[in-house]
Amino acid sequence: MIKVVVCGALGRMGTAIGRLVSESPDLELVGGVDVKAGSFYGVPVVEAARLDAFLEETKPDVLIDFTIANASVGNIKAAAAHGVALIVGTTGFSPEQREEIRLAVEGHVPAVISSNYSVGVNIFWTLIREAARRLPEGYDIEVTEAHHRYKKDAPSGTAKTILEILDEEVGPRTHLHGREGMMERGDEIGVHVIRGGDIVGDHTVLFAGNYEVLELSHRAYDRGVFASGAVRAAAWVIGRKPGIYGMADVLNLS
Ligand SMILES: NC(=O)C1=CN([C@@H]2O[C@H](COP(=O)(O)OP(=O)(O)OC[C@H]3O[C@@H](n4cnc5c(N)ncnc54)[C@H](OP(=O)(O)O)[C@@H]3O)[C@@H](O)[C@H]2O)C=CC1
Ligand SMILES: O=C(O)C1=N[C@H](C(=O)O)C[C@H](O)C1
């Protein structure tokens, strides 16, 4: 059995992941970590300050982290120091934090890090790459994302991954976050963020040319799509060489 600890256990994603791990025949949920102690699915959730001691006591094979960027970096370092494999779904990292994570992980433990664990979004990213590569010059590009009212980071991690893909395929362009007032369109990529209600996660890329618009969209209806991807990655990551992997590796898309 693969022993799993979930960081952010009492959050929206931690709860969904904990349930799937507890129901899996191949995985054993040994506990959770959150800001406050508690329990979930019959196992303890310990306070964040006890993470090191908890890893020492429970000796998990994998730690799944869906918390917040500032907390996640420390959780990743703790797991790597204990030789625990990682699945990281947290978004909103700064470039400096990404570098800290890379240094903590590379050469130490295998880690899957993805801004989106759904199968659909991972296919969506390949379609965006293909469209951006094939369309001739002259198409304007706009990226829109919508999420629930509680989401803290903006734009979403998925939207940032989309922008990375577009930059790779069409060359780096300015990312213009919203528009207001008088302005002429240049060759920027417009980025638009919507927050409201209980929207699980919508992303759209629009390529607008003369007399035609190509629009690619993905809509998640339930967090289960992210949770099941993260749990699938947890089973996959065991036994891999140390280093950073993406969900495309798990799904064999690359
Ligand atoms: N990659 C993907 O597929 C997906 C990624 N996400 C990302 O996952 C993250 C979590 O999302 P979501 O579950 O909606 O957020 P929630 O706020 O519901 O859950 C996060 C949980 O982490 C807790 N937390 C904060 N600091 C720590 C810490 N140091 N150690 C342990 N737990 C801590 C929070 O406690 P408290 O509330 O008390 O601060 C909260 O319970 C976000 O970054 C989000 O963007 C979300 C969905 C899919
Ligand atoms: O916070 C969320 O809810 C989500 N976050 C991820 C992101 O920032 O891209 C993935 C998904 O869209 C849901």
UniProtKB/TrEMBL annotation:
SUPFAM superfamilies (alphabetical): Glyceraldehyde-3-phosphate dehydrogenase-like, C-terminal domain, NAD(P)-binding Rossmann-fold domains
Record's keyword terms, sorted: Amino-acid biosynthesis, Cytoplasm, Diaminopimelate biosynthesis, Lysine biosynthesis, NAD, NADP, Oxidoreductase
Active site: H147 (proton donor/acceptor), K151 (proton donor)
Span of domain Dihydrodipicolinate reductase C-terminal: 120-251
Protein's UniProt keywords contain NAD: yes
Locations listed in the record: Cytoplasm
Entry EC no(s): 1.17.1.8
Superkingdom of source: Archaea
BP term (GO), one: lysine biosynthetic process via diaminopimelate
Residues annotated for NAD(+) binding in this entry: G8, A9, L10, G11, R12, M13, D34, G89, T90, T91, S114, S115, N116, Y117
Reactions performed catalytically: (S)-2,3,4,5-tetrahydrodipicolinate + NAD(+) + H2O = (2S,4S)-4-hydroxy-2,3,4,5-tetrahydrodipicolinate + NADH + H(+); (S)-2,3,4,5-tetrahydrodipicolinate + NADP(+) + H2O = (2S,4S)-4-hydroxy-2,3,4,5-tetrahydrodipicolinate + NADPH + H(+)
Any single Pfam family the record assigns to this protein: DapB_N
Residues that bind (S)-2,3,4,5-tetrahydrodipicolinate: H148, G157, T158
GO cellular component: cytoplasm
Domain Dihydrodipicolinate reductase N-terminal: 2-117
Top EC class, one word: oxidoreductase
Keyword Ribonucleoprotein: no
One annotated GO molecular function: NAD binding
Major localisation: cytoplasm
Biological or metabolic pathway of the protein: Amino-acid biosynthesis; L-lysine biosynthesis via DAP pathway; (S)-tetrahydrodipicolinate from L-aspartate: step 4/4
Record note on quaternary structure: Homotetramer.
Biological function: Catalyzes the conversion of 4-hydroxy-tetrahydrodipicolinate (HTPA) to tetrahydrodipicolinate.
Protein family per UniProt: Belongs to the DapB family.
The name this protein goes by in its record: 4-hydroxy-tetrahydrodipicolinate reductase
Source organism of this protein record: Methanofollis liminatans DSM 4140
